[in-house]
Amino acid sequence: GQELVQLGATADGEGAVTTLNGEGKILVQLRTMEDGQGMVATLNGEGQILVELGATVSGGAVRTLNGEGQTLVQLGTTDQGEGMVSTLNGEGKELVRLGSTKNGVGAVAVFDPSAKRAPGILMPR
Questions:
Q1: Pick the CATH number of 56-125 from 3.40.1390.20, 1.25.40.10, 3.90.930.1, 3.90.1170.20
Q2: pLDDT number for residue 120
Q3: HSE on the CB side for 59, CA within 13 Å?
Q4: Domain ranges, ordered by start, for the chain
Q5: Alpha-carbon distances of 84 from 13, 51, 99, 111, rounded to whole Å
Q6: What is the pTM of this model?
Q7: pLDDT at residue 105, rounded to an integer
Q8: Is 65:48 a contact under the CB 8 Å cutoff?
Q9: Residue whose C-alpha is closest to residue 61's, from 51, 47, 69, 70
Q10: d(C-alpha 30, C-alpha 41), whole Å
Q11: How far apart are CA 78 and CA 104, in angstroms?
């Protein structure tokens, strides 16, 4: 029969599981990253990673990408264990960051396309 699931190892000798569609293209990868943390990636039919879900030293992380491989949204934890969300444009420049200050107060940072801090703009309801 047709191979739809692969069990194997990464180049670093870590475990890996891959699922394929009927055309033999990778759709899902479960693997261990270089730092020993787990990662799940979902791909489109063209073999481009669109979503990554994984573990980091400080907590969980989610990243969405466009079909060109650029990150659009990152969600995770900071080194201090606080939650953080960033949105980026198609060129990889951060536009908005939601998180908290060192004092634990909620914070929003807005950036212009050149990655410089910009005044915040309130969205209409």
A1: 3.90.930.1
A2: 67
A3: 12
A4: 1-45, 56-125
A5: 32, 17, 5, 15
A6: 0.82
A7: 83
A8: yes
A9: 51
A10: 7
A11: 12
75 closest CA partner among 44, 92, 51: 51
Tokens of 97: 């960051």
Which of 109, 65, 115, 118 shows the shortest CA–CA distance to 84? 109
Rounded Cα distance between 74 and 110, Å, is 15
Task: Kindly report, residue by residue over 28-84, the tens digit of the pLDDT.
Answer: 999 988 778 899 999 998 989 999 999 988 889 999 999 999 999 999 998 788 899
DSSP letter at 56? -
Give me the count of residues in the chain. 125
